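User: Here's a chain of 424 residues. Predict its fold as tokens.
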Amino acid sequence: MTVETTALQGLLDVERIRADFPILARRLDGDRPLVYLDSANTSHKPQQVIDALSEHYAMHNANVARAVHQLGAEATAAFEESRDKVAAFIGAPSRDEVIFTKNASEALNLVANTLAWARGALEIGDGDEVVITEMEHHSNIVPWQLLTERKGATLRWFGLTDEGRLDLSNIDELINERTKVVSLTWVSNMLGTINPIAEIARRAHDVGALVVVDASQAVPQLPVDVAALGADLVAFTGHKLVGPTGIGVLWGRSEVLEALPPFLGGGEMIETVTMARSTYAQAPHKFEAGTPPIAQAVGLGAAIDYLSAIGMAKVAAHEQAITAYALTRLREVGGLTILGPAEAVDRGGAISFELEGVHPHDVSQILDSLGIAVRAGHHCAKPAHHRFGVQSSTRASFYLYTTPAEVDALIEGLDQTKRFFKVA
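Assistant: Prediction complete.
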């Protein structure tokens, strides 16, 4: 037994956890057990979340904040209770700082678009600068490209070291008196890198810039305290933290949300409407036009209950240990190159790699024939791939239900892939 597998013992009762996830018992073609190593893409859902969704639709289905009948009151209470759960889970000082969106991409677009329309201290214009990083998901690149193009501002970015970490050597030059926004990922979905948010936020705040964090990979893996993080706005998504698809979250400091204009117009985001003009509700409702993702929010609340009962410190420890074990085993595979940090230090549970002589899509296809689910492609991080001179990669990613045996299956699958394609 290796040091890494020994370290995993006692962190989580993974077999008990796995019993909560019906899909993990599936047999695939050829009666092969499912080995799911694609949780950075989307996580699976425990029965408790599935039951919460089913119960809501079966017994409490109604629109929220619009009806005085009993079902409407029950749906509204459940929806707002989920907001309370999210606020507590991420350490938000106020529940009114929690905005529900349909995903993290919408949350980031909400920020970029409302900043494009903002006036006063938040206004962005000619000569201003927005700073991002070369490791961002496209959802944290494209909105800022659109913003800077429309406003005549300049988009700048941190580069990457050969190890796959942010190159902060020019931080004082890159974040300067012209910087209005610094937006970056907390944990890279491709490289697995955990970025020093607090350090970067201090520099950004020194020059009066807003700090926006894409926490889509961080919130599922790490204990989170947004009040201590140093960010002004934080986006994440529900489907990566054992919750449903169709639900995301934007957290923002109250004074920032108050200063931003509405994103979408419609029902529930208004205070009053006349034919001449409208006035708007306070946050969070100012940013939640129309019927929200009600059942999805209820499911997200159930997901948070599930993870909270386990303890995010334990989830993080398991994630680090299983990733360390995977990194050790992957280094045994000849011709395999890891993209990103090769050690499990300041690193999340996604590992992208190249297998010499085999296209990532072929790697994924062979692994899939063995019942092993990984992702192949650019992972919505084309600039990061370009930085390392590759068009695409294979990515294995782990979560609280991943076992060492599944990592071993991946290694055996890669060996079979090499034999199939006759590569050394």
